[in-house]
Design goal:
elongated, alpha/beta, 5 strands, Rossmann fold, binds zinc ion
Length: about 325
């Protein structure tokens, strides 16, 4: 398990690691991709370390070595068995039974729960008593990407710690440190595509999203110039992750609608599509636009839920609708 802090977490770290007495439970909340999990892992290593130095885990003691090998017996992670699913009551009960035993290393026990909002009402109830009066010296680190979904009973038993995204300046700096060949503009594009998260921007970069974006934008332009047909593009885009395509088309539909209402040029999104969106906005019939947006949102949900759909037919349907926005 790696345990490193990101540069934008220094202050947050000092406020938690510097506490004279640790709370029984912390709730780290903030937008996805702000580095909460890495922070919680590093904090767990610190809480388990037998001789922290300068408010950092020492890296040498037996606890630090067990942590590094991911075999520390007094660290537990409570997560859904499958991503996107709920945390099962049975998993919570197993955990509660485990933390009632004495610590194997004679120190603290740490439990990381991620994402806390994946606890159903039943799982949350099964955990409440332990959260309130933890056995021995157990410390809970709950991570939440969607704070408003959490039960008040869970929130009220934790010390709340917000973990915001870094500023654009700090994010760009960090991205350029990781990838020296990225230009400022590329960094800004990636960050915009990743809703401001430098960590998600890096994932997009690794997935070659800048090149995909260019391909899609140029495809849309060809579509309106009648240089490509919906079926040509559907074939050309067959390997592009559908969630990306649906995210972008949903955003574009929304930007066109907004521009149609406000004519505010500063609200046209990333530069690569501004001209196209501005051209479409006054020409696309409002009713058709709203209908297209509903269709996109509905199919985006299906894509996210991984409902099996024929990719080529789905993309062709999307592009036919999109093409119809510009009346001949
Ligand atoms: Zn140590």
């Amino acid at each position: 398990m790696s345990s490193n802090l990101y540069p934008w977490q220094t202050e947050l770290w000092q406020s938690l690691a510097g506490r004279s007495q640790q709370a029984h439970a912390y709730l780290l909340h903030g937008p996805a991709g702000s580095g909460k999990r890495a922070f919680a892992e590093h904090f767990a290593a610190f809480l388990l370390c037998k001789s922290p130095q300068q408010q950092q885990p020492c890296g040498h003691c037996s606890a630090c070595q067990l942590y590094a090998a991911d075999t520390h017996p007094d660290l537990a992670r409570l997560e859904p068995e499958e991503e996107g699913k709920g945390i099962l009551i049975a998993s919570v009960r197993d955990l509660v039974a485990k933390i009632l035993q004495t610590s194997q290393q004679g120190g603290r026990k740490v439990v990381i729960v991620e994402p806390a909002e994946a606890m159903t009402a039943g799982s949350a109830n099964a955990l409440l008593k332990s959260l309130e009066e933890p056995a021995g010296s157990t410390i809970f680190l709950l991570i939440s990407h969607q704070f408003s979904f959490l039960l008040p009973t869970i929130k009220s038993r934790c010390v709340l710690q917000s973990c915001p995204l870094p500023s654009e300046h700090v994010s760009v700096q960090w991205l350029q440190q990781q990838h020296a060949d990225l230009s400022l503009e590329q960094c800004q594009t990636l960050l915009a595509l990743a809703s401001g998260s430098p960590l998600n921007a890096q994932k997009l970069l690794n997935a070659d999203v800048l090149a995909i974006r260019e391909q899609v934008v140029s495809g849309v332009k060809q579509l309106f110039k009648q240089q490509s047909s919906p079926s040509d593009l559907a074939v050309a885009w067959a390997k592009i992750p559908q969630n990306l395509l649906f995210d972008w088309f949903c955003q574009w539909a929304q930007l066109i609608l907004r521009y149609k209402m406000t004519e505010d040029e500063s609200q046209l999104g990333l530069p690569d599509m501004q001209v196209v969106l501005k051209h479409l906005a006054p020409r696309a019939p409002l009713e058709l636009l709203l209908e297209t947006q509903n269709w996109l949102l509905e199919h985006r949900r299906k894509v996210l839920r991984r409902v099996p759909l024929r990719a080529d037919l789905l993309l062709e349907a999307l592009l036919l609708r999109w093409q119809a926005l510009l009346p001949r």
